[in-house]
Amino acid sequence: MANDDYVKYVTQKIVKYMDTPKNERKKGRNEAKKEEQFYSNRWFGVLPFAFRLFLQKRKG
After folding, report:
1. How far is CA 33 from CA 27, 28, 29, 58, in A?
2. Which terminus of the chain is less hemmed in, N or C, by CB atoms within 10 Å?
């Protein structure tokens, strides 16, 4: 990415953020927090997920 493209992208993101009402931004953050994650993925990354897929493929 050229510097001009990056500055344009960041400017667009900032303007979009400032244009959205505060309650919508807060609602979006709360929804993101509510999305449930597997604790194994949260604590150890993708390795438990890959191991689980490997075991499922061996069984099936």
Report:
1. 10, 9, 6, 34
2. C
As a whole number of angstroms, the distance between CA 43 and CA 49 comes to: 12
- Could you tell me the CA-to-CA distances from 27 to 15, 21, 22, 57 in Å, in that order? 19, 10, 9, 39
For the record, the structure tokens of 52 come out as: 């689980």
Residue 1 DSSP one-character state:
-
What is the C-alpha radius of gyration for the chain, rounded to an integer number of angstroms? Answer: 19
- For residue 22 the two structure tokens come to 């505060």
Taking a C-beta distance cutoff of 8 angstroms, is the pair 49, 38 a contact? yes
